[in-house]
Amino acid sequence: MRLGVTVMPPFPHQSMGTRHYPRNLPHGYRFDRPEVWQQLVRTAERGGFDFVLLADTGGVYREYGASIGDAVEHAAHVPVFDATAMTGFLAAATSHVGIVATRSIAGTAPYVAARTLATLDHLSDGRIGWNVVTGHHRAAAENLGADDQTPHDLRYDMADEYVELCRRLWNGWKAGAGSGDGGSALDPRATPFVPREAVTEIDFEGRFYSSRGPLNVHPSPQRGPAIFQAGASPRGIRTGARWADAVMSVQPYPAGMVRYRDAVKAEAAAQGREPSEVAVLHVIQVFTGESDAIAAEKARIYDEGVDPVAGLVVLSGHLGFDLSTVPFDTPFASLDVPGGQGLIDQYARVDEARDITVGQVAERYGRDTSQPRFVGSGATVAAQLAELFDHVGGDGFIVSPAWAPGNLEDFVDFVVPELAARGLVRTSYTPGATLRDNLRDDTTGTRSTPATPAAATAHPATTAPAHPAAASPAHPATTPPAHPAHPTRPTARENGHP
Ligand SMILES: Cc1cc2nc3c(=O)[nH]c(=O)nc-3n(C[C@H](O)[C@H](O)[C@H](O)COP(=O)(O)O)c2cc1C
């Protein structure tokens, strides 16, 4: 079972109750200093995790209420640090765990990205990953001077060419011309330092990008970073299956996890890749502790601090649609939105969630952005994860800490030993292994087999979930928002919004 962590410094971004959670940022940690995040990556390394992924976004959401006001007042994905810039701080604090930077194709030329990422891959000794994103929200495009967003599928066409050009630059130096080739480090005193015929210009002329090359950085341990991707649409899955070492998904229901896993593995095979080369990972939220009761109490206290307005801001941003313009009890599946159709399908295509309302999804978004939640002692959570892993296949999970750094410490202290006792996770790193090596490591013997149509039929959407919490769509329809009303504009309030 592969294990990763995702955070978006300076806040754990998928848990919008985190700011009010009493255990967040203990011991005088400051959210905008490196120490708390360095502690978090060291904890991931102590748990034998494959990677810590730094999410990123290029602007402040302004969809909800057509204003940035609620986003900044409720710290809804703002502030967000530049993930690539943070990578060096976190790699320097660790020795084995991978550090993955989310980086959009918008805003910088492929050459610039290829050079920065090759540099980081050298300096981290092959532990860098790149989560390739296309800039899925309008504010990010406007901040770069564009009037509007590039259309969805065209963004992925551009991403394909962007990554292809980066790959050519990383591969422009021939075998033997760098430390990425069998560890044969270059001799800084030798002349020729590198034979001239070993380094070639690439003269790339594409539809969107061009570059003469060569890259002025010698081949890094992984010849560029390991590639991550998180597209959920058919076009997004095509790009992920073509390039990625790992793809990620947030699926509130097991049926969606199975569907996503099958689609990715089938697409990888269609593109001539070995499906097991593309690890399929699902994001989860976990509350754990010494006992089931202690874990449940942590979840209860956390839920009291969840901010429904932050959920509405981020969900509106992800949908590209102002949710303040529709009544809270609008069926979520009836929305017609320009972005994030996959978000609607996550609910609309699952029997027990078909009638979920806008208000319910927004509240859940504030709580965990639709991740399945696991609550219990280490043994309880490990048993639930093992069962879900068997049920949905795929290659593992990405923990999204509900607070920093303690929520991940809980996972490593209570759940990891139980998973290790079941032989499901590594107990030590292989010396010198790169991030890509670790993602392909099969020493736990549990790597799932490629999806088959039969596997999909065996777990239809109506199958009972492995874990009740993993399937509970959201708080019940009648649950009022956890917070006192935050009226912002009459339209939102008239629509039943908090
Ligand atoms: C686990 C996960 C992490 C993601 N991280 C980021 C991120 O940090 N920055 C970003 O701009 N988009 C991020 N995305 C959005 C995806 O890159 C993609 O735009 C989104 O899943 C919609 O893809 P689709 O249009 O192919 O369905 C993430 C998505 C998922 C599921």
Automatic annotation (TrEMBL):
Pfam families named in the record: Bac_luciferase
Compositionally biased spans, kind Low complexity: 445-477
Region of interest (Disordered), ranges: 432-498
Domain spans labelled Luciferase-like: 33-389
UniProt entry keywords in alphabetical sequence: Flavoprotein, FMN, Monooxygenase, Oxidoreductase
InterPro entries given in the database record: Diverse_substr_monoxygenases, Luciferase-like_dom, Luciferase-like_sf, NTA_MOA
UniProt-listed NCBIfam families: FMN_nitrolo
Protein family per UniProt: Belongs to the NtaA/SnaA/DszA monooxygenase family.
The protein's name in its UniProt record: LLM class flavin-dependent oxidoreductase
